Amino acid sequence: MSKVLQVDLNAEQEKVDKIGTEPSNSFGLFSKEFAKRHGLHLLGTTSTWFLLDIAFYSSNLFQKDIFSAIGWLPKAETMSATHEVYRVAKAQTLIALCGTVPGYWFTVAFIDHIGRFVIQLMGFFFMSVFMFALAIPYQHWKTHNAGFLIMYSLTFFFANFGPNATTFVVPAEIFPARLRSTCHGISAAAGKAGAIVGSFGFLYAAQSTHLDKVDKGYPTGIGVKNALLMLGAVNCLGMLFTLLVPEPKGRSLEEITGENEEDKGQQQASVGNVPV
């Protein structure tokens, strides 16, 4: 740190040793004390990251299939490989420029003003709204491609101005220092599990209900409309589990994890032992 910051830093070994030997700081990840203090927090960070990645990766990886289903892109068999790559890249770039990238910058601008909790709850809410708005009148969007594109872009906008940013910020702030990277890793692993579920699940679920319209080698599915309805329901669950996640905005890491309260309690106890 001294080399990177180009300042003189003195190691406070006595303070480090004291913190490490205090009983209040000795509980482990699988202890009752951790479950009491941070069990619900860990459940909140893992479940929200898991649910987000189901919705985000499924709709992100299979954009071309969704666009083809509504008639915005021609079927793959009607295009050459080069033409297909160009059309798909053009569509995905348009979605990124209109939704994905602006959503991240909105998070950067507002995360310390309105807070992580509000951004994540709002993101899941609007993702649910737009998923249902795409799915319920699904036949309507087949003849109104521009409207579908706008709604679909807004889904990605609120994913990134929402849980796709906050789910990896919050676990880095709300857990004790010695367990922070472990809890963040567990939360991230849950997210990757959600990505696997979303990727493979949507691939099979979005297949047509009619056998003659199914991609070669796949069984019949529930169709794109019902798959979008399921993703909307997943986002609703994300809203519920967000309620388990605390708001760390404007608070120090020690205050969030309760370490400040422990220090205050020890100081009060030492003052109480001083004779008047």
From TrEMBL:
GO terms for cellular component: membrane. It is a multi-pass membrane protein. SUPFAM superfamilies: MFS general substrate transporter (SSF103473). InterPro entries: MFS_sugar_transport-like, MFS_trans_sf. It is found in: Membrane. Residues 266-276 have a biased composition (Polar residues). Gene3D superfamilies: MFS general substrate transporter like domains. Keywords: Membrane, Phosphate transport, Transmembrane, Transmembrane helix, Transport. Residues 256-276 are annotated as: Disordered. One of its GO terms (biological process) is phosphate ion transport. GO terms for molecular function: transmembrane transporter activity. It comes from the Eukaryota. The chain crosses the membrane at residues 93-111, 117-136, 148-166, 186-206, 227-245. Pfam families: Sugar_tr. This is Major facilitator superfamily (MFS) profile domain-containing protein.
